[in-house]
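Consider the following assembly input.
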Amino acid sequence: MSAHDHAHDHDHGHEHEHHHKDTFITKYIFSIDHKMIAKQYLITGLIMGIIGVGMSLLFRMQLAWPEESFQIFNILLGDNYAPNGVMRNDIYLALVTIHGTIMVFFVLTAGLSGTFSNLLIPLQIGARDMASGFLNMISYWLFFLSSVVMICSLFVESGPASAGWTIYPPLSALPQAIPGSGTGMTLWLVSMAIFIASSLMGSLNYVVTVINLRTKGMSMTRLPLTIWAFFITAIIGIVSFPVLLSAALLLIFDRSFGTSFFLSDIFIAGEVLHYQGGSPVLFEHLFWFLGHPEVYIVLLPALGITSEIIATNARKPIFGYRAMIASIIAIAFLSTIVWGHHMFISGMNPFLGSVFTFTTLLIAIPSAVKAFNYITTLWKGNLQLNPAMLFSIGLVSTFITGGLTGIILGDSTLDINVHDTYFVVAHFHLVMGISALYGMFAGIYHWYPRMFGRMLNKNLGYIHFWVTAVCAYGVFFPMHFIGMAGLPRRYYTNTAFPLFDDLQNVNVIITMFALIGGAFQLVFIWNFFHSMFYGKKAEMNPWRSNTLEWTAPVEHIHGNWPGALPEVHRWPYDYSKPGHDEDFVPQTVPMGKDEEQLHH
Amino acid sequence: MTSLLVLVVIALVSIAIWQLTKIFDLTQVGSNVDNSQVANDNDNNVNGYLMFAFLIFIYLTTIFCVVEYGHFPLMSNSAAEHGAEVDRLMWISMILIFFVQTITQALLHYFSFKYRGKKGTTALYFADNNKLEMIWSIIPAITLAGLILYGLYAWTNIMFVDEENEDLLIVEVYAKQFGWEVRYAGDDNVLGKANVRYIEGINTLGVDAADPNAQDDIQANELHLPKGKKVMFKFRSQDVLHSAYMPHFRAQMNCVPGMVTQFAFTPNKTTEEMRNSKEMVEKVAEINRIRAEKSKALNAKGEEGLDPYTFDYLLLCNKICGSSHYNMQMKIVVSEPNEFKAWLKEKQTFGQVLKAQQQPVEVKQEVNDTLSTVVDTSSLAQVIR
């Protein structure tokens, strides 16, 4: 080890002692330690998740039994929005909108990527902390602030934003068009602007950290696939989030300062508005330029987590490590040039539709490679079916089921008829919603010991997984069929169309599964918080894993490793390698004399 | 009430299961059972079998859904000429999807079951195989190339319409919160110019009364179409985004304020023919069975029952557009060309409507003249402000 490294370590030892005198505030609240920030992200994300999922259960109940009244509506939504327990139509739209916003951004972007990027990047690359701990802290607190603003928006008098999570203007721009486009929408936009700032700070930090702070021997091709996924995700975030910010800013101008970026020729509430020359299609372009990569911002970290967990628990190297990296990069690149497939029938030039069909269907190729590589990794493995492993296998399953229907939606010809129907809802919930949630759960079960020093109860984990898996299919599989029957999404009730009367019993079945699945998430919540204090104390490396995070002490310390930083001698997937006594060879173990290096 | 009961049952079942696991956990305390919370051989066995069971569950769900709900989808019996092509592509994609889904899920879950962990076994150290990876990059690539080509061929046929040389019926579909209106181009088959700034009184579509092409335009609030003639729809919206969705015709296009969008198709089944088609007769019978049941329940409560349902083509709004988005619909009637002509003839043209209101029209035209200047200055004023 060079003298420089020694000096560095010495400094850190010093810092370490200094930090022991942390006050409650600097340790638990305004912490700059990446492990604490990860936990903050996770818990904030979980709370937002409970709210988001809870909302979906409410509107699922409305869809299944549109003519009934429920006391619970009245209790949760109040007399104004649910008089006598009957949900009003504008609050239905608000629930749909906020559910989408919270799940996509607050749970699956910040809660998933924020948690695991923060926890794992320094620990798996062998760094003391993020490149900038301070920026990291700001990033979390901006996320927290944006969550608070989003929650506050639920309580304004004119109601929360209700133009759908895609907030297409003019609906989102004109309070005359829908009550939720008043203060609720303003707060929504403010919250998202703060959120984007937070996300950018986080992403920049992740990229810089991965590039600069890898420990000795940790070349890019020795990085665990988790890190590759987080790294590429951060890059997509940096490329696409600013575009959403610009769209939000322009929308704020249109709403508040009378500009006409997205608005033109509007007659509403009996009068002509002054807007002229703008185009809502421009907004759609700007929105989906983020909106589509966002799908992969949500999904890639989940796939990275799954790669790591499947390899560890299959006791086998991940199959096709380089192909996995290549497909992550290919997906990331393609994801930025396919946004138009959300807009086939938006009125844009049909020629563009052809181009976007082409690029969209190309994404199926790297996705297929990933799916097959996961399956091959399982082949002839020695599968340790821990809850994390079950969720990872579940992810591959829903990723395939949901991904395949993308072939239909990505095809402009077929999209004409299923666009904005429940077919779309079923597709994206499986491929990005459920898959990413499974990834998040898998990550939590796997790295819980690393985060909290205790183990989650595995039996509760098994119950959680199996009920969730059955319910997820129970909810979203039949949904394809009502979508193919032409049932549009975002309808408060389908009773206005006798044509859809025969779909109603399917809606009831879907809601039943949703309610059961939702209720069983309580098993997980209980397990999560109970185990934090009463769970079994974790060993240093409970899953017998190769990666660096399991070489650090269970107790969290600043700087992660008490002594020198670990040195890396091999790739992270030497599981069951012939010639070793154990079925895992941590990255810190030097290569044997005649040992063959697969990747360097 | 029944649903409330259901909720209570769900809650009780969850509590019961929670209690069971607690008991299960408690029985393990003190015994020498491994409490590491890491999967042991027993867990691997149980969950391995469950994985296999889950594969069967997926298959059963699929079969159940196809048998029970498979008659819902709009994948056959389309009412537009291009629909057959769309449906064929849909079937090809669907069959491909089901094929791939069946095989990959089988592999995934079977491997999870077959290779469940056992103490003493070692996994195969198998990290790479370029040949295999080539195979599963190239096969999807070829398959997709086929699908893309077919898709693009169909898309081009549908979307690119030669307006100059084809014999088209021009129809404007006009969207507003929360309803639809229609304007036929009349004898000259050219729609008069329109802008929301001309909206006034009976001129709800903002048609420019000064435009000679507008005089023979015909406004209606039901969409009638002749069978066998290609219809070019011009979509407008006066307030927010709407989407004109005509599922039976495999047609959909957004209505965008400030611009005109378009979509064309040829209806090839009259409403009557559709009603009498075997699939529709069955569907309507099923719907009416459900409605009769509901009516019975309603009558028992002393409320009025539901009317029986007869099929009509519909235009629905399929882009979130405000509180009553869920009920923004218009009836579409497809009839034989002569019936359609007769229906259209009964309607007054825009010119006639204006004449009937002779007095107001003169005033109105003045208003229109001043209106255009007023609009300009007001928008100018806004900019300055």
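Chain A has one domain: 37-551. Ask yourself how this observation constrains the way the partners meet.
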